[in-house]
Fold this protein.
Amino acid sequence: MTDTAPAIELKGISKAFGPVQANKDISIRVMPGTIHGIIGENGAGKSTLMSILYGFYKADAGEIFIAGRKTDIPDSQAAIAAGIGMVFQHFKLVENFTVLENIILGAEDGRLLKPSLSKARKSLISLSEDYGLNVDPDALIQDIGVGMQQRVEILKALYRQADILILDEPTGVLTPAEADQLFRILGRLRSEGKTIILITHKLREIMEITDTVSVMRRGQMTATVKTAETSPQELAELMVGRKVLLRVNKEPATPGDVILDVRGLRVVDDKGVERLRGIDLQIRAGEVLGLAGVAGNGQSELLEVLGGYADGTGSVMLNGTPLDLSGKKSDGQSRRARGVAHVPEDRQREGLIMDFQAWENNVFGYHHDDRFNSGLLMDHAAIRADAEDKMARFDVRPPDPTLAAKNFSGGNQQKIVLAREIERNPDLLLIGQPTRGVDIGAIEFIHEQIIALRDQGKAILLVSVELEEILALSDRIAVMFDGQIMGERAADQTDEKELGLLMAGITDTENEHSVAEVEANLARAGGDARKEV
Amino acid sequence: MDVMPKWAEVILVPLISLLLAAILSALVILSIGEDPIAAVNLMVKGALGSTYGWGYTLYYATNFIFTGLAVAVAFHARLFNIGGEGQAMLGGLGVALAALYIPWPHWTLALIGAGTMAALFGAVWAAIPGWLQAKRGSHVVITTIMFNFIAAALLNYVLVNVMRPPGSMDPASARFPEAVHLPTLHELLAPLGIAFSKSAPANVSLLVAVAACVVVWLLIWRTRLGYEIRAYGHSQPAAKYAGISPVRITMVTMIISGALAGLMAINNVMGESERLVLNATEGAGFIGIAVALMGRSHPVGVFFAALLFGFLYQGGAELALWTSIPRELIVVIQALVILFTGALDNMVRMPLERLFLMFRRPGPPSPTPETEPKPGPRSAQSESAE
């Protein structure tokens, strides 16, 4: 250890929400000019800790030292004054303001805007140059891509003279190319002496960019290690508390007959925008087709139309018989009757009724089944028994069918949905973001279930924004961009780089492409859609 | 939601709200120089002290059970049916038509026939706003309010121009024939040897109301339709995902809600006035909203809340009769109860929740999923891969 004071030091921070201890006696030291990663499963307490640091919550106990001085942070103003800048997962930008206007928002001096604007312009240009941020001060937020929006957030913090930058899950909405660019910028900020705290659940990012890393588990800091002296395997074990399989074990697929045959599928949304522009794809029995793409490029619409709750045009054959894409026979009930099961992308909004108890959710969508009803009334005893059985088989914790869905963790909620859909023995499983907001331990289990279903000879359409997940599970990968399929690759003959270019709408994957080119393409088409997600 | 035990949620919160309303009402009564204790005594005696008082209390409660259930059913689908008043008025029209123009051999058949008409008229009156909501997106709150005015105007027209007996100066229908007279509690209880006030209006409709509570409970918590209504009410995207048609649920729910509100007419029109008069509903449609709020949209809660409001109505009338407390102040007191139990619910709930949290913290940690040990040996894993 050197003599310099740490940029941030937390001592014994604790915070409880009612009976839940979100943070328990947490201490960290982050030295200036380093990138410190905080990694942990969902609900481990990372966000709570950062919220305390940024003045959103008050800690029940503990002290915060900034550059060696004990500091109280009662609100975000105080955090900014102490030199802390935060880049949230969901950006806090005014869509119809320019970059410049967004930067000074809340930091205007005087009643007139003009002096602040011209002052800000000067410092913005120099900041932008110093750190290679490459941002146009006069562009409207709604016209620029997500990657650039994120850089505006970083600029906002820098403009407020932040020395410490906290980034919360910054790569969630980025393509691999954009993520790489972000990491280059973070590296540059580090070399200029800034201190960066990176909150993420992605091991790869931690290994790639951080100097030191702290692992959180169930509200406690389980370890702080030098990144160079650890491995992804070790970190995963620290996060989960036991040995974890990071790779999915699977045999090569043995595809059978074509189960799903989609041709020229188009979807126009309420606003008249064409979200799917002629999709062709096929899925055979016993294979997983992964659909990669930046969120908002039509994947959700594809799932919705196949799941029966959005109208479309074109031709979709299931087991050789056409599916109705609009009208009376095109709803969730009819699809289920045809053997299509659907694990929706947003389980909390669609897949579950959060206020319903687990057993009630267990029949959601299948509540008309004979075995769950006796005459006019629902057979609660049968539904409960079935729920108990499924919860045991899918290892839902706690295995209490009378607990409301909202009281389960993300991973266990997903298991409830999966159990409901997989146990129906469907011909086709549509599965969107199977592990979003799911902890590593449950990810492993969910992946195993998907592969097991494939090996039973089912067709699976997997949509995920996590490229790693797509690569690990899929047999074939199709990439969507702006409502179209950009290309299809065999999973074992492609890599993140190639898929990343396809995700940005660049089909010429042989040649080198600049980040600027990727960005321009995304901003032109996919960028707009991404903001809605 | 799960912060408080169920008994606190269901009993403590309304009780405290009621207490607050009572205290404030007492202050109001004090400020005009009357004795609040005496006023409470008078209310209790007037509403519950005799079978006459009970007869009125139960009569009002019957009205409120029907309208309260109507609002409650719609609440489960997140539809705010404020049109109970208009639907009950139309129900009255249905009852009057059935009673006046069909020769009924016996009151039982008349009750079934007129009840069906009442429910049908109420249902149609709610179905139109329901359709406008489901198909056109016109907000049901706005349209049901407007339909209350249309109902009042329509009834006015019908009573003045169509149904008024020739020569009558009164905007009311003719008296119903004797055959459709519903037995009052006096007549029902007399064979059992129980003496019940002869002049109180409570009648056999009370039993229909109680039966309606049971049916609504079965509907909401035991049938597939109720399941779909609740699912739709909790999350519309989820309902869509499950293949539950929003149009169907909106329409069906509004129709059931309107039918319940319309059914109230068997009590006030058929059971009490025995003819259709202007403003027969006397605001019961609006009280139904407070009743449903206070009863947490649960039939049992609705039943007790309706009893409470029946007591307030009857007790209030006694108060107006025997003290110098003006009628308007009694309305103020009733309004205070509505305000505290309905609108200001969270004012009581939030501090109470905090209180419960405070008491819980030092105790043993409750088994929330976050504190449950998560990972561990997973024996079920191999089976589930089947």
Remarks:
- Confidence is low (pLDDT under 50) at residues 526-533 of chain A.
- Chain A touches chain B through 58 residues (CB under 8 Å).
